[in-house]
Design a protein that fits this description.
Layout: E1 2-7, E2 24-27, H1 35-42, E3 49-54, E4 57-61, E5 94-99
Parallel strand pairs: 1-5
Antiparallel strand pairs: 1-2, 3-4, 3-5
C-alpha cells in the first residue's frame, strides 16, 4: 500500500476534509507506479501542488528557495517549478502532498 497524506485544500479529496483531522488515503501500489500516476488516480492537478515529500524527504517543490533551506531530499536535484512526476513509488512508500495554499514559509 502507498500511504498518501493530503494537506491544505487537497484535503477535499479525502474522507474527512476538516483541518483538525489527518487526511490519509491508502492506495494499492500498481506496477510501474509513479508520483504522477498517484496524483492522477487521486484527481489532483499538477498546478494544485506546491510540494511533494516522499518518505519524509522533499521530492519536488514550487519554492525556489528550497535548495538552500537544507530539507532532506529524496533526490539530489529537487526540481522547482516544473516537477518531474516520473519518480517511482513503491509499496510501503509514504507521500505528503501539499496544496498551493500550504506553501513552505521562508523566515
Amino acid at each position: 500500500m502507498i500511504e498518501v497524506h493530503l494537506y491544505g485544500k487537497l484535503r477535499r479529496l479525502g474522507p474527512d476534509p476538516r483541518g483538525d483531522r489527518d487526511c490519509v488515503l491508502w492506495l494499492d501500489a500498481r506496477p510501474g507506479e509513479t508520483v504522477g500516476s498517484v496524483l492522477e488516480r487521486l484527481g489532483v492537478r499538477t498546478e494544485e501542488v506546491a510540494h511533494i515529500f516522499l518518505n519524509g524527504k522533499l521530492l519536488t517543490t514550487c519554492n525556489s528557495m528550497a535548495p538552500w533551506l537544507r530539507y532532506q531530499r529524496a533526490r539530489e536535484d529537487v526540481p522547482t517549478c516544473e516537477p518531474n512526476l516520473d519518480y517511482p513509488v513503491r509499496d510501503g512508500d509514504r507521500l505528503g502532498i501539499f496544496g498551493r495554499d500550504m506553501a513552505l514559509l521562508v523566515v
